[in-house]
Specification:
This is dTDP-glucose 4,6-dehydratase. By secondary structure, the protein is α/β, with parallel strands linked by helices. The chain has 8 helices and 11 strands. Helix 1 links the parallel strand 1 and strand 2.
Amino acid sequence: MGHDTSISILGSGWLGLPLAEHLLGVVKTIHLSTRSLEKSKQLATLGFKAHLVDIEEMSTQVQTFLNSEILIINITNKSIEAFQNLRSEIERSTIKHVLFISSTSVYGSDQSLCKETDSIHVENNLRKIEKLFTDNTHFDCTIIRLAGLIGPKRHPGRFFAGGKVIKDGNAKVNLIHQVDCIRLIATVLEQNAWGEVFNGCADTHPVKKEYYSKMALSLGYPEPDYVIADKGSNKVICNEKIKNTLGFQFIYPDISEILC
């Protein structure tokens, strides 16, 4: 990725907009999508090329949005048909590389240590959508599977506020801070690490009932109630690959020390 690179970012929400701001000035052009006309005007004032794009209702404007070398897909939509339509549009465009921001929810809760090389026995919708982009010859694709997202406006102390109950109190926590998400994405772009799957998750995995109680108390909230599940999850997301392959170093390796 050079200074003359154009990047399109599908999704300008909690992660997409700060990511775009991080890349502004690093690359030549950033195309940024939204489904809101009002927000598109706001994005334009920030220095981005703003586009109205909804993959459920594809318009002719999508090809203008896709006028880049790199596409970062960062939306929560789970419609396979919508992503199939998007893939067809990408195949007609100038996009050479796709970075798909996925989730560690692709791993089953019955898996213990989850590594990128693991076979996923029960293919959920998200896994099927990942494969739409990895099993394609028109462009290179890298998948980043992010753990639970914390950071500005997403303090873990608020996750179970208002009487919400922790359903699996003895399960381990798998989280990553927004700052590290953005740095991980930028690292993949800088190193041209295409054709890969990476997990994004902090180093520490405290027990949910203890961690969320501590985080709630730090904000002055009452400790959340919890249930101990009969068949609790042992799921822990392994992050060794991004350290070994990319040389990635976390700003927030210990989620217990985070004040968002």
